[in-house]
């Protein structure tokens, strides 16, 4: 399970090149959260306070459109949510609901700040991407989650779905 935690952390773009001791320190801050089937994990409009890593189960990611929820992705073991939004003061642009019983590992925003102070390479990695994270013209990326297998193809498909929804409005 410890190896899985390290792999999850390394899947975050700005954490992938961190030193092993920093990765180890980050995994020490991960908290386990369990959600029953059908439970809302986060809602669109809520602040991004945590990075979530799916350990077990599945999460439906959906957007609201004309009083209905439209699913745009299903996340499963190894996927992460909120890794970009946690760095700034952003809100979720989508809702996450447990499709099955779900176990998540989470890293709270306050813990990330603590880690920035003790892990110089993490602080540097975030600093180097500050223009991306703090550009007020661009809000948090609409797709602030990562699907474990073939993420680029899935991201392109999700952007196409969002564009279609925007055109329909």
Can you describe what's shown?
This protein is of the alpha+beta class and 169 residues long. The chain has one domain: Jelly Rolls (Sandwich), CATH 2.60.120. 35% of the residues lie in helices and 27% in strands. The chain is built from 6 helices and 9 strands, in the order ααββββββββαααβα. It has helices at 2-10, 20-28, 109-118, 120-128, 130-133, 151-168; strands at residues 31-35, 40-42, 50-56, 59-65, 68-75, 80-81, 95-98, 102-108, 145-146. A hairpin with a 2-residue loop joins β4 (59-65) and β5. α1 packs across α2 (20-28). It is globular.
What keyword list fits this structure?
169 residues, alpha+beta, Jelly Rolls, 9 strands, Cyclic nucleotide-binding domain-containing protein, cNMP-bd_dom
SSE run: HHEEEEEEEEHHHEH
CATH architecture: Sandwich
Chain-averaged pLDDT: 85
**What's the CATH class, please?**
Mainly Beta
Q: Helix/strand/pairing class, anyone?
A: alpha+beta
Structure summary, number of beta strands: 9
Sequence of strands across the biggest β-sheet: 1-8-3-6-9
């Amino acid at each position: 399970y410890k190896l899985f935690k390290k792999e999850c952390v390394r899947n975050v773009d700005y954490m992938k090149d961190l030193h092993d001791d920093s990765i180890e320190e980050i995994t020490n801050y991960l908290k386990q959260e369990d959600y029953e089937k059908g439970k809302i994990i986060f809602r669109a409009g809520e602040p991004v306070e945590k990075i979530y890593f799916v350990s077990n189960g599945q999460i439906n990611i959906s957007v609201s459109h004309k009083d209905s929820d439209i699913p745009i992705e299903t996340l499963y073991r190894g996927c992460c949510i909120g890794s970009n939004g946690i760095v700034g003061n952003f809100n979720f642009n989508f809702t996450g609901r447990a499709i099955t019983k779900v176990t998540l590992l989470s890293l709270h925003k306050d813990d990330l700040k603590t880690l920035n102070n003790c892990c110089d390479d993490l602080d540097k990695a975030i600093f180097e991407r500050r223009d991306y994270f703090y550009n007020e013209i661009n809000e948090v990326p609409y797709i602030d989650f990562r699907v474990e297998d073939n993420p680029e193809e899935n991201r392109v498909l999700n952007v196409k779905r969002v564009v279609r929804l925007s055109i329909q409005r």
